[in-house]
Amino acid sequence: MRPAAEFSLVLRCRAAAASDDTRHADKIYLPPSYLSALLDRRPAKPPGRRRPTHSADDDSDTALAFGDGDRLPSPLILRLVPRQAAPSGVVYCGVREFSSDEGEAGIPEWLMQGAGLLAGDLVAVELVRAEKGTSATLQALDPAARSVGDLRALLEAHMRSRMTALFVGERFHVPVGGMAQALPFAVVALEPADVVDIVDTDLSVDIIHADGAPDDNHAEELAPGAPRRVATAGDQPHTFQLHIPAHVAAVDIVLTCEPGSDASLCASRIVRGVGIADNTWFDYSPPSQQPKRLRIERDQLPSGSNSVYVSVTGFPGACKAAIEARFDEPPADAQAAVPAGSPSPGERLCTNCGSSVPAARFEMHQVVCERHNTKCPRCPRVFKRGSAELERHWHCEACGAAGEQGDRDKHDYFYHTPRACSCDASHSHASLAELAEHRRTRCPERLIECRYCHTIVAQGPAATAPEALLLGQHAHEWDCGSRSIACAKCKANVSIRKVQVHMRVHEMKEEARRARMVPCSNRECSRERGDNLLGLCAACFGPLYTGQYDPDNHKLLKRLARSLHAQLTVGCGSPKCRNLHCATGRGHAGSAAAPLSQTEAAAMLVPILRAYAPLAAAGHPAIDYAAIDLHLCV
Questions:
Q1: How confident is the model at residue 67 (pLDDT cuts 50, 70, 90)?
Q2: Computed from CA positions of residues 430, 436, 437, 443, in that sequence, does the dihedral angle turn out positive or negative?
Q3: Residue 177: exposed, middle, or buried by beta-carbon count in 10 A (0-12, 13-18, 19+)?
Q4: Which residues pair with 546 in a beta bridge?
Q5: Could you provide one GO biological process annotation from this protein's UniProt record (predicted)?
Q6: How many CB atoms lie within 10 A of CB 61?
């Protein structure tokens, strides 16, 4: 059932100017006259009330009051009803600004298509009220949605920043970092009504894919310590997800290809950013170098991250291999590596093979070694003369890389084939390895997990602001961090990216205040000393204060004496008191003589009152509060 219209005005539609913020949003531009006409039909404002603001997109729970019990809803939810189209072309949306030309409504193109509108058509813009949404079932219409790591987080971020209302049957697009085309979604079901308001709501989202399967698609799990068989088809990567416990210092990922096949091993923190051109860690080694190996240290993972995504891509086509993850194990070749250096005493270094040989046998070894072995003139490897291994040995003429003859094709493919990035087709990178370096660092399409909205998005072009350069932020994080929130301490509006610095300023001010703080003269209190004659804080001095005229402070000292005497003889009565100068505290401590006698209490008061005696003298001489052994219950 469609909600009833409270107000309607017919306007001529035009396509709204498209930008990154408005292209996929459901908010339209209306003329100022629409707001004026809307307000004119509301009851007159009571005396003393402020005039309503001209902001319709106020994402708060407040509403503009114009009469007792009569409020303008916020946000404004509108229904667009084409005058030329069938009723089935109705769509619901919100308002971005009241700034369009008179008689026109600026509508995003995707909303015009959903309503069957063309530029210049007449459309009735109706104000309706919708219930707050509680749950929504959305269907991804493109199979490519399965490659998105956290689809629910992506949708929640999109709806929070760009959507005002949802209705059953609606189709909208969600831009995804790293994908050329936005992903289409359809609204299948809503609760509690067919049209709901989703601003400032806790909306539960269920997702189903194009084939009707629920969104439970994740990369295959790679369990540590157990080799797993993997077979790739063509050049499509096979992706695994590896969870790394917090106590693990490092992880080794080892890939061993079957004879006659080869693959590249890559890893990334983001599932959509793992492949031969998109990765954080990689092993492009040639077929002769087996096994492939990646080592990921714990400090290379961002704080709070506990998983990585690993991809195996066959070269030049299908590949069969075994992959294994090992925790806290050093690379196997670390044990075999021999540090370069001088030979041990009594040994000499062979100039042909580089081995350390006992000096007594050095001449014989040198003759035999040069007769049977030969050293490559371009690398330190040594081969047996006439061996097949020597015949297969190869060096790249362009970069000098060493390997076997069968490694040439893969080496040329990865290191000597120019590539262009999709972010700038006019610029060519010298190799796939250089392209991968570009895409993991400077590329605007590089996928990041935004530190502010916590969604996976493209980082965007490099920001030009000096502060952004110092923070290492690109366009998305710089814009996302520009949103402001109210500081919990001082209530000032602070941009999100400056919250940590702002809170640190509060901490430094508090530390400075404590550093220069003079403590209360009461040994049982840790507050700051107040401005009073006894050197007490406001809380300790409060029970002793009176408004009576007391020029020589005799009454103040009498009140102090009475309070201390009662404390020593009767006690404060607090069940938490641990003050040993109080009868109650002494009783809690197990003292046999908890309440003191009148004479004993008076004797304990004498040194304290003698220290405060200068207060009764003319001019109030300075008092050494630190030397007064005062213990008042607080």
A1: very low
A2: positive
A3: buried
A4: none
A5: ubiquitin-dependent protein catabolic process
A6: 9
